[in-house]
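Bumping my old thread because nobody answered last time. Still need a sequence for this structure:
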């Protein structure tokens, strides 16, 4: 069970690089990279709001929740 970040897919669909997003949102590339790779343990609502505004998407487009049933067969 967990929350997964789909930032790569949304960026690809918008034809935007992580660097461009970092500049538009005014967040460091390092912090955005931590979020993108799923290593972040938290995200501020203001940051999520800014990302969604720039990417013209909803939080559910970036963050998804999976259950154990969704991860069947995955090596953990």
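Sorry it took so long. Here it is:
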């Amino acid at each position: 069970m967990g929350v997964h970040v789909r930032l790569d897919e949304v960026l690809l669909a918008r034809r935007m690089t992580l660097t461009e997003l970092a500049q538009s949102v005014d967040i460091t590339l390092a912090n955005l990279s931590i979020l993108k790779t799923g290593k972040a343990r938290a995200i501020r609502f203001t940051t999520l709001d800014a990302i969604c505004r720039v990417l013209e998407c909803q939080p559910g487009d970036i963050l998804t929740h999976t259950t154990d049933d969704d991860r069947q067969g995955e090596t953990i």
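The mean pLDDT is 89. Let me know if any region looks off to you.
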